[in-house]
């Protein structure tokens, strides 16, 4: 693995894998770097192992698609760096990766970020207590490690993923003490405006209904809730929730939260990629052309990291970006590129048309976006929403100044869990919009490497 | 906090110690998963206030699972696959650099 | 239209200190601060409150710096007491590390000259050899290339962001106003009052202070001041929070109250580009671990950059408008060290209506730049 690559892909989920296959097919020298030890990203985590004992069948038919992709990737001839974290990329591109505390650099003409999505942070009272996790975390533990949460287990969330996980948990022999549906009332009405688009891909909707049925058949109590709190001293002990009838509290060992997914845009931001505010998804995503080219030359973004559209749409996005990159490198002319892309556009259209309906249906309740004052916004530095408001009152009306006044976003996660809340609270406190407020400046390193690793770059140079 | 289901197809048991106690995991599991399987109430206390924390996202974007692995602090447990004999310990407060 | 006694254009450490100083004297201050994404040297600062190495050949600047240091403890205490925001100022002495013999000798020569120039006692500022230095560091081993360090008992450090926040809060506490996202665009003068036009409206006052850092040029020009300033990029690294490790701050290496270790800073000519580069970050990390090898294992959390505001000789410029009485400019790259002096001596001078003679050496005529008529 030496010399210069045509295309370096960061991320081994559906977008990255499909891009690698497409790029290799076009004769591009391709490298895929992924922090996981096996292909699949989050949605297809551990998919190569799952087939062996039938877990794949119980995880649902969509999951099996990952095995097909992974196999195609393994066979396509692209170079593969698993278990490695990209911590910096400098234009040209020189990409620095670290594994086991040792850093090395690779060169590539084009860089594709396929880092996928992360769950939207869910800042509820008590969300930092041990025992409170995301639904996605529990699903990863199921897929990769065959682990189930200890009871009593509660799920509080909105959207397709908590339903899917609840059914998987039950299918694997787990028990759910309760399912708290946080989807606000009235969302159906708002979503119905997009129904024609939704009906164009009825499979999504049928799946959701089937999952709800499975829950009810399993005897899981389901409540419609307006507020959720995690309670306990030093660890989660109970969950408190408010329904239309009043407040209830129940013992809990594990509480799994989910309020949708948002693009994992961190790396692109650190590399200077301009962002746009997506009002429907209530998240920032990179500003891209139709092929996935970002505002920085030679930088592409594909998959959920470009905007939430699901795993199948991510594959198509990856292929389109690979075509775009190949064209940028002069390895395919525009006519050939467009001919290959035509069926991809059509297929992506079908997947994308259902998004406005889902985005409207599962738009999070306001208190998750703009929490009460005593809720922690920044987990790393333990900064509450109230402190953010105090900073705004002092005259800090932008995210960078508020960050400077409060330390919100200065911890190891560098804003991944708190910048969204920071921006929403500032917008609320100033009567502005997240789009106008903007995002705090993201800087390298993308992963916290040691000073020694960084120093080695200079020490080797001097030697 | 989480229990392991029997997995006949795993490549074999990988035994690690979590806070001094032996825990049987499998190849492909992470140190954060081991902490959850061991039933530890928390994997670290925060430098800012000493509050107890445990893994939250399991995918590397929350940095709650910072723990001491084989004597090296501040390692993201969810990004560290288990190895036979790995020593996993909670991390208390700010990191100590001196022996 | 809003009216005040003094308009301060620029809410960085210089503007906020001047604004605070005027407000505590009873003036009605309106601070006009620019956009969140402006250059903002104040947010990129390293945090030293420092005299070492400053003002060789410029005794007025050395004096100004030492005067500020002398005021700092009371200044910090008053800020904390008035606003409830403690800037975490610690005067514990400061070091300038030397690696190798050449650095040590150069530092010794500079230190001696500065001590003589300033008439300072040896106890306050001297060179420490490796043995003395290691004794100070106790259990923390020094790298083998460390030969010693310059030391000044008067030096220390502060949290520059808490300082900025406290100054803004101090202005509000003393009845002033802070207008965020309100960049000054045009300045007019009718003979008695200045009118400053901004996207958020018009502000008027009989006095005006331009403290807009790297953005000062176009504003200064409007009041007839042509001051040569240029940006100089400095990059800084910050680690995760660590247990207490460093006994006192050093130039380029200090540990914050939260426990993070800051490493800095480069000196680059990059125009207005506040991006970061490994070409500078890596050598900075290498020097830090050469000084304190235990830092090798510390995790780097962020690499940022800021743009210093430099005059041709690196000294401040304080100048009154030749065209319109009541307007003046203040600029420097040591806004943190000089914050106490800005909040007291400079603010008092401004309140009295003119800059006394001690500020004459800081006028930019020293650069022989022709002033706009």
Can you summarize this structure?
The complex is a heterotrimer of chains A (463), B (99) and C (373). Chain A has 463 residues and is an alpha/beta fold. Chain A contains 19 helices and 22 strands.
Query: Runs of chain C with pLDDT <50, length 5+?
Result: none
Indicate the percent of residues in helices of chain B. under 10%
- Cα-based radius of gyration of chain B, to the nearest Å: 13 Å
Could you name the ranges of chain B where pLDDT drops below 50 across 5 or more consecutive residues? none
Strands side by side in the biggest sheet of chain B: 3-2-8-6-7
What shape does the CA trace of chain C take? globular
Largest interface: A-B, 49 and 43 residues
What is the mean predicted local confidence, pLDDT of chain C? 95
Tertiary shape of chain B: globular
Note the main attributes of this structure.
A: 463 residues, alpha/beta, 7-stranded mixed sheet, globular, C: 373 residues, 6-stranded mixed sheet, 30% helix, 25% strand
Could you describe the 3D structure shown?
Chain A is of the alpha/beta class. In chain A, 40% of the residues lie in helices and 22% in strands. Chain A has 19 helices and 22 strands. In chain A, helix 6 (160-171) packs across helix 9 (202-217), helix 15 (385-393) packs across helix 16 (399-406) and helix 15 (385-393) packs across helix 17 (419-430). With 99 residues, chain B is mainly beta. Chain B has one helix spanning 31-37; strands at 2-4, 13-18, 21-26, 44-45, 52-53, 66-69, 72-76, 87-89, 91-92. Chain B has a five-stranded mixed sheet with strand order 3-2-8-6-7, with helices on one face. In chain B, strands 5-4-9 form a three-stranded mixed sheet, with no helix packed on it. In chain B, strand 2 and strand 3 (21-26) form a beta hairpin. The mean pLDDT of chain B is 94. The relative contact order of chain C is 0.21. In chain C, helix 1 (13-24) packs parallel to helix 5 (160-173). With 373 residues, chain C is an alpha/beta fold. Chains in contact: A-B, A-C, B-C. Chain B binds chain C through residues 47-48, 72, 74, 93-98, and chain C through 139-140, 240-243, 245, 258-259, 294-295, 297-299. Strand 9 (147-149) of chain A pairs antiparallel with strand 1 of chain B, so a sheet runs across the interface.
């Amino acid at each position: 693995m030496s010399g210069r690559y045509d295309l370096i892909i960061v991320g081994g989920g559906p977008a990255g894998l499909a891009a690698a296959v497409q790029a290799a097919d076009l004769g591009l020298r391709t490298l895929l770097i992924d922090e996981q030890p096996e292909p699949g990203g989050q949605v297809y985590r551990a998919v190569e192992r799952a087939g062996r004992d039938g877990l794949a069948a119980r995880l649902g038919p969509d999951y099996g698609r990952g095995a097909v992709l992974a196999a195609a990737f393994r066979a396509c001839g692209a170079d593969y760096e698993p278990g490695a974290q990209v911590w910096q990329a400098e234009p040209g591109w020189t990409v620095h990766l670290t594994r086991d505390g040792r850093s090395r650099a690779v060169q590539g003409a084009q860089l594709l970020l396929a880092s996928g999505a992360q769950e939207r942070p869910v800042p509820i009272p008590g969300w930092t207590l041990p025992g409170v996790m995301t639904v996605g975390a529990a699903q990863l533990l199921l897929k990769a490690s065959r682990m189930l949460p200890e009871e009593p287990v509660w799920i509080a969330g909105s959207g397709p993923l908590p339903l899917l996980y609840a059914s998987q948990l039950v299918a694997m022999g787990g028990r759910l003490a309760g399912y708290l549906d946080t989807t606000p009332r009235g969302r159906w009405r708002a979503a119905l405006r997009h129904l024609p688009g939704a009906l164009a891909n009825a499979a999504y909707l049928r799946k959701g209904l089937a999952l709800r049925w499975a829950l009810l058949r399993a005897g899981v109590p389901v409540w419609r809730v307006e507020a959720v709190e995690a309670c306990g001293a030093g660890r989660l002990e109970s969950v408190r929730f408010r329904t239309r009838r009043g407040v209830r509290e129940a013992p809990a060992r594990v509480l799994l939260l989910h309020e949708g997914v948002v693009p994992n845009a961190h790396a692109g931001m650190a590399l200077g990629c301009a962002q746009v505010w997506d009002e429907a998804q209530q998240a920032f995503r990179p500003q891209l052309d139709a092929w996935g080219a970002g505002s920085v030359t030679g930088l592409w973004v594909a998959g959920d990291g470009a905007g939430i559209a699901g795993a199948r749409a991510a594959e198509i996005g990856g292929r389109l970006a690979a075509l775009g990159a190949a064209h940028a490198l002069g390895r395919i002319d525009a006519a050939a590129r467009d001919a290959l892309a035509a069926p991809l556009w059509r297929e992506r259209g079908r997947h994308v048309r259902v998004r406005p309906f889902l985005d409207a249906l599962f738009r999070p309740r306001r208190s998750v976006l703009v929490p009460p004052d005593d809720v922690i916004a920044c987990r790393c530095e333990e900064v509450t929403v109230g402190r953010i408001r105090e900073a705004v009152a002092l005259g800090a009306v932008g995210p960078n100044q508020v960050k400077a006044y409060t330390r919100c976003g200065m911890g190891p996660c560098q804003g991944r869990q708190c910048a969204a809340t920071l921006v929403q609270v500032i917008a609320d406190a100033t009567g502005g919009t997240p789009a106008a407020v903007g995002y705090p400046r993201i800087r390298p390193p993308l992963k916290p490497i040691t000073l020694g690793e960084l120093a080695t770059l200079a020490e080797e140079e001097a030697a | 906090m989480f229990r392991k289901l029997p997995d006949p197809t795993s490549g074999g048991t990988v035994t690690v110690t979590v806070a001094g106690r032996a825990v049987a995991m499998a190849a492909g599991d992470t140190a954060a998963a081991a902490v959850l399987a061991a039933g530890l109430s928390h994997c670290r206390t925060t430098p800012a206030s000493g509050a107890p924390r445990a893994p939250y996202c399991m995918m590397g974007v929350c940095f709650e699972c910072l723990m001491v692995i084989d004597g090296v602090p501040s390692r993201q447990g969810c990004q560290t696959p288990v190895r036979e004999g790995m020593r996993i310990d909670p991390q208390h407060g700010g990191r100590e650099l001196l022996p | 239209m809003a009216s005040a006694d003094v308009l301060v254009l620029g809410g960085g450490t210089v503007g906020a200190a001047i604004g605070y100083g005027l407000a505590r004297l009873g003036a009605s201050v309106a601070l006009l601060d620019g956009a969140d994404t402006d250059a903002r040297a104040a947010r990129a600062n390293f945090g030293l409150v420092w005299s070492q190495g400053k003002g060789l050949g410029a005794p007025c600047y050395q004096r100004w710096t030492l005067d500020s240091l002398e005021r700092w403890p009371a200044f910090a205490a008053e800020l904390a007491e008035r606003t409830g925001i403690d800037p975490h100022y610690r005067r514990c002495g400061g070091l300038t590390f030397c690696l190798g013999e050449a650095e040590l000798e150069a530092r010794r020569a500079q230190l001696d000259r500065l001590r003589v120039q300033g008439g300072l006692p040896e106890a306050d500022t001297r060179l420490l050899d490796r043995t003395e230095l290691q004794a100070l560091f106790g259990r923390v081993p020094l790298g083998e290339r460390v030969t010693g360090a310059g030391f000044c008992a008067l030096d220390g450090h502060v949290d520059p962001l808490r300082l900025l926040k406290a100054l803004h809060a101090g202005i509000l506490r003393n009845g002033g106003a802070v207008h965020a996202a309100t960049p000054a665009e045009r300045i007019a003068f009718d003979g008695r009052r200045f009118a400053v036009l901004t996207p958020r409206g018009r502000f008027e006052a009989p006095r005006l202070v331009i403290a807009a850092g790297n953005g000062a040029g176009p504003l200064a020009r409007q009041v007839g001041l042509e001051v040569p300033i240029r940006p100089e990029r400095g990059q800084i690294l910050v680690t995760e929070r660590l247990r207490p490790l460093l006994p006192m701050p050093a130039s380029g290496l200090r540990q914050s109250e939260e426990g993070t270790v800051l490493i800095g800073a480069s000196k680059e000519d990059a125009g207005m580009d506040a991006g970061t580069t490994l070409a500078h970050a890596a050598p900075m990390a290498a020097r830090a671990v050469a000084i304190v090898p235990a830092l090798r294992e510390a995790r780097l959390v962020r690499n940022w950059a800021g743009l210093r505001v430099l005059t041709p000789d690196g000294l401040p410029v304080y100048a009154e408008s030749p065209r319109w009485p009541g307007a003046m400019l203040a600029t420097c790259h040591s806004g943190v060290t000089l914050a106490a002096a800005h909040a007291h001596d400079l603010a008092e001078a401004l309140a009295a209506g003119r800059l006394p003679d001690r500020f004459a050496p800081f006028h930019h005529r020293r650069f022989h730049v022709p002033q706009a008529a």
